[in-house]
Design brief:
The complex is a heterotrimer of chains A (about 230), B (about 270) and C (about 230).
Chain A (H helix, E strand, L loop, with lengths): L8 H35 L5 H16 L2 H15 L7 H26 L3 H9 L4 H31 L11 H11 L9 H32 L5
Helix pairs in contact in A: 1-4, 1-7, 2-4, 3-4, 4-6, 6-8, 7-8
Chain B lengths: L2 H8 L4 E10 L2 E11 L4 E5 L6 H8 L7 E6 L2 E2 L2 E4 L2 E4 L2 H8 L2 E4 L11 H11 L5 H14 L15 H13 L5 E5 L7 H17 L3 E5 L3 H7 L2 E6 L2 E6 L1 H6 L4 H11 L2
Parallel strand pairs in B: 3-10, 3-11, 8-9, 9-10
Antiparallel strand pairs in B: 1-2, 1-4, 4-5, 6-7, 11-12
Helix pairs in contact in B: 4-5, 4-6, 5-6, 6-7
Chain C lengths: L6 H40 L4 H16 L2 H11 L8 H4 L3 H26 L3 H9 L4 H31 L11 H12 L3 H32 L2
Classes of the chains: A mainly alpha (about 230), B alpha/beta (about 270), C mainly alpha (about 230).
Chain lengths: ~230, ~270, ~230
């Protein structure tokens, strides 16, 4: 019975290659998204109105736009606006997903920093720390345990979003499956299409679980900083 | 030399508040307040809740900004600076520079929970005063010893009692070598049996005579023992002031009398 | 060198893109109906005290929430017709039906969590009072619990509705003629890339940003009233 649920080794090989591309996309998007989240989340709390405004515009725009539309726009329209011929799909994918992720992450970061008790800010003022020092040494360290759980969920959402890059010709896990499906008619080694897609779903599930567990470990580590030595 | 001259020589700074006004929306909390504290003086402010006494400390610490008036710390204006011979609203840079002479201990300690006691005391000297880690560590150990917590250096705030936390907070403020120290009801959040250990530290500080201290507190015993002057504050103004003997034994105002009666009857 | 942006072309294609947008909105609304109803069913199943019921529901919800919507759409569109024991008439779905079922089921799993949170936030006393008054299960749910749970679930549900709108353009991958599909078709037909996708994006923002603001106002209202 189990055999019927599996594909052959060649197909798994291809799927694994696609999975590796997916992993590269999620890592790149996560890096960019986290950078944007930190910068924009902090910017939302700036004392200068124009910085706050800029961050707000970014957040509204990047959250309001659909990830897939942004992706297509970046891959097809952006290069032309810059006078270049085309953009590597991996770059477009990472830019679009990271940009999109940053908007949601920024709100998580902002909310977490604001939830740190006001007394911590007052103590920092009493000790004459600069705003940057206060943020770096007092507020952010205390915000991290609050940021992690929703940020983990956000990361998994972005992982799901990586499947979209299959639509701009990047050979990620989803695209490999699409190709296998397309070639199945002429293939010497045809595969059951439902089984194919179920396998793909399970691989994504595994990736999601890996992310979820990683965040749980990170959450435990962060909580330990506050407990007894 | 006089007490004040001694204190000033040791580095303490006086605080001079002139016509200070602060309102929160419609509510005027400080109403053209005039208040002078000499270098090295220990001043205790008493009064009912909501009278604005905490706000006095908070505007000196720049946790709130004043709407009107002048505050002088030592020789410099806190909220104003001199530009072409005129007094104008100060830049953030100036405020920060004067603020380095002031420190505050809070009712709810506000220790950094993710750092040990020693790290709490070390952070600001390293980041603001530019001490090396070793210098800061040495200083932290000395100060924590002084407040009786030499054996709790690596403990996190979560492992300390209220009294211990407050003593760490005092050490943390002292590490910045302030010339004026503000204490906002620093024993009000403590269990009664822990109050004494904190008051002892305050007593030592006051006895040394080289630091200007402004305290808002309900601890009348401490006030009558260590205060140079007691201020009765009500509805945004100083109702009366004088040496503890006068205020506690023979106040002029009825309001002071009734307030003291209510507080001391516990 | 052809111009980067041509206003005349932009105005020319806008009506078609708006038509595509309306199709996207249609799919979203249908999907919302499905998600709201199915979500409640999933929530109740998840809460069942019988482990052999609640566990499969939990697994299903977790599975759908952890995997990409796009892949689920491909599964419904390509794989379902190939399943042998289903009659062709049922398993071969039109692009619209596939998209509606796809986002409907996907977001039903999210809505079920919102319902669960809403149900759990109903004070314990309400359950106890229902038992004390000897109410039938259906009465308890219809007249006591759900009327209190649903308003509390509305803000997160609102957020999910907006999210569904943002995911609906993925229907283009299974040939549904939504706004993205139209933009792609225009790109292939007229060889102009910038105008179609930019206008599609703008149309999108015109709908989604006000919708998001509405949800936020709803959030504040509910928070205010529950105090």
């Amino acid at each position: 019975m189990l055999e019927e649920l599996l594909l052959n080794s060649r197909q798994y090989g291809n799927l694994l290659e696609g999975t590796w591309v997916t992993i590269q996309v999620i890592l790149g998007s996560f890096a960019l998204g986290t950078l944007m989240s930190l910068i924009m989340g902090v910017a939302r709390l700036s004392r200068r109105p124009w910085i706050r405004g800029l961050a707000l515009v970014y957040i509204e725009f990047a959250r309001g736009i659909s990830a897939i539309i942004l992706l297509f726009w970046m891959f097809f329209a952006l290069p032309i606006l810059f006078g270049v011929g085309s953009m590597p799909p991996m770059l477009a994918g990472i830019l679009a997903l990271g940009f999109n992720m940053g908007a949601y992450g920024a709100e998580i970061v902002r909310g977490a920093i604001q939830s740190v008790p006001r007394g911590q800010t007052e103590a920092s003022i009493a000790l004459n720390l600069t705003e940057r020092q206060r943020l770096r040494h007092v507020l952010l360290p205390q915000a991290v345990p609050i940021i992690l759980p929703p940020y983990g969920n956000l990361t998994i959402e972005v992982l799901k979003g990586t499947a979209l890059v299959s639509l701009i010709t990047l050979t990620d896990l989803t695209r490999v499956a699409l190709v296998i499906r397309q070639n199945n008619v002429i293939s010497s080694d045809p595969v059951s299409i439902p089984i194919l897609w179920i396998n793909v779903l399970v691989i994504y599930l595994i990736l999601a679980q890996v992310l979820a567990q990683s965040f749980k470990v990170a959450e435990r580590r962060a909580a330990r900083k506050f407990a007894s030595t | 030399m006089s007490q004040i001259e001694y204190a000033a020589a040791q580095g303490a700074a006086g605080v001079e508040m002139q016509q200070v006004t602060k309102a929160f929306g419609e509510l005027v909390v400080l109403n053209k307040l005039d208040l002078e504290v000499d270098a090295g003086e220990v001043v205790v402010i008493i009064g009912p809740s909501g009278s604005g006494k905490t706000t006095i400390l908070r505007v000196v610490m720049t946790l709130e900004r004043i709407d009107d008036g002048y505050i002088k710390v030592g020789e410099r204006q806190l909220y104003h600076e001199e530009k072409n011979g005129e007094l104008v609203r100060a830049s953030e840079k100036h405020i920060r520079s004067v603020r380095s002479d002031i420190s505050m201990v809070f009712q709810h300690f506000n220790l950094f929970p993710h750092m040990s006691a020693r790290e709490n005391v070390m952070l600001a000297p390293i980041k603001v005063k530019g001490l090396t880690e070793d210098e800061a560590a040495e200083k932290a150990k000395a100060l924590l010893d002084r407040v009786g917590l030499g054996d709790k250096l690596d403990h996190r705030p979560a492992e300390l009692s209220g009294g211990q936390k407050q003593r760490v907070a005092i050490a943390r403020s002292l590490a910045m070598e302030p010339r004026v120290m503000l204490f906002d009801e620093v024993t009000s959040a403590l269990d009664p049996e822990l109050v004494g250990e904190v008051l002892n530290v305050l007593r030592d500080l006051a006895a040394e005579g080289d630091m200007t201290m402004m305290l808002v507190t309900h601890e009348m015993g401490f006030a009558s023992e260590m205060a140079d002057r007691v201020l009765m504050f009500d509805k945004g103004r100083v109702l009366e002031q004088g040496p503890p003997d006068k205020i506690f034994r023979d106040p002029d105002h009825e309001r002071t009398k009734s307030f003291l009666r209510a507080v001391l009857s516990h | 060198m052809p111009a980067r942006w041509r206003w005349d072309y932009a105005w020319e294609i806008t009506p078609q893109l708006i038509e595509g947008m309306l199709k996207t909105v249609l799919a979203t609304l249908l999907g919302i109906v499905l998600a709201v109803v199915l979500g409640l069913f999933l929530a109740l199943g998840r809460r069942s005290e019988r482990k052999w019921v609640s566990y499969p529901f939990a697994w299903f919800i977790e599975f759908v929430r952890s995997t990409p919507l796009l892949v689920q759409l491909f599964f419904l569109f390509y794989a379902l017709p190939q399943v042998e024991f289903l009659p062709r008439s049922i398993s071969t779905l039109s692009p619209l039906t596939t998209l509606v079922i796809g986002i409907g089921v996907h977001y039903a799993c999210y809505c079920s969590e919102a319902y669960r949170a809403g149900i759990n936030s109903v004070p314990k006393g309400q359950w106890e009072a229902s038992t004390a008054l000897n109410l039938k299960t259906t009465t308890k749910w219809r007249n006591v619990i759900l009327p209190q749970a649903i308003p509390r679930s509305l803000p997160p549900l609102g957020n999910y509705f907006v999210a569904m709108f943002k995911d609906a353009p993925q229907g283009a991958a299974i040939t549904y003629a939504g706004v993205l599909f139209v933009a792609r078709a225009l790109q292939s037909a007229d060889f102009r890339t910038v105008e179609p996708f930019t206008i599609a994006g703008i149309l999108f923002l015109i709908v989604s940003i006000p919708a998001a603001m509405l949800v936020r106002r709803l959030e504040r209202r509910v928070a205010y009233e529950s105090d």
